[in-house]
Amino acid sequence: MKSETKASVIESVKTPIGLLALSVLVVEAILAALSAKAQGKDFTILTVGMVLILGAVVVGGIVLALHKPAPMAKEATTTRPRYQVFISAPMASFTSDEEYKQSRKEVLELTKFLQAHCKYKDIFYAGAQLKDRASFEAADLSLDADIAAIRDSVNFIFIYSAPAVTSAFIEVGVALALGKPCVVHVREGVRLPYLLQNAASAGTAIPPVRIYPYKSYRDILNVYKVHDGAVFQDARRS
Question: Which residue among 70, 170, 220, 234 is buried most deeply as judged by most CB within 10 Å?
Fold first, then answer.
């Protein structure tokens, strides 16, 4: 058998059932080859022996399937998350382009700061390419892209600058459900939803959460400047 053929056969055996099927075929092939030469008593011994071996293979395959039903193929190489940080902030909830553009300017400033001072090279912010409200994508497409990016991120930052009914809260919920360490920056005087207010003391029920009130955007930058980018590691130890 050619080496590439052998490799393809081995590659195809990914489950206990696949192993069982391959084993049965091998036993059947051996039995067919030997039975052509065996006669009389030898043939009887050969037949009984192969039946016993076949039975053992079947039982072994069943036991393996019950105790380890997951695929037996080698595990895919774990890929690193694409983004070090996902930044979430209200966008569509702003009532004017001026408000949105100001918020976007501040988030982009934070993005540059994290890249320069905390060495977070890859950061996702949905508004990075959306210069005004007219540039917003369809809601369903935006949600798909955001969830995929959160899943592909290591850490999560939420900036809540003003009271708003914002879909950013959905992103916070997704991040917590996916186990992402979260840092929340909320402007002084603005109230977070009740459950999120107490997320920092929720224990092991959710991933680590840190909440930092701020007066100005400089206060947000100072959090990462003082911690030298270790705020998420600190959160993991909370």
Answer: 220
